[in-house]
Amino acid sequence: MRAAGTPMSSVADVARVAARGEAGAPALGVRALSLDHPGGRRALDAVDIAVCRGERVAIIGPSGAGKTSLLRILAVAQRPSEGALEVLGADPWALGAPARRALRRRVGLIHQAPPLPPRQRVVTAVLAGRLGAWSLARSLVSLAYPLDLAGARAALARLDLAERLFDRCDRLSGGQAQRVGIARVLYQRPEVILADEPVSSLDPALANHAVGVLVSEAIERHITLVASLHAVDLALAHFPRIIGLRDGKVLFDLPTERIEDTMLEALYAQEGFAPTQHGRALELSAQRLRGMAQ
Question: What percent of the chain has pLDDT over 90?
Answer without folding.
Answer: 72
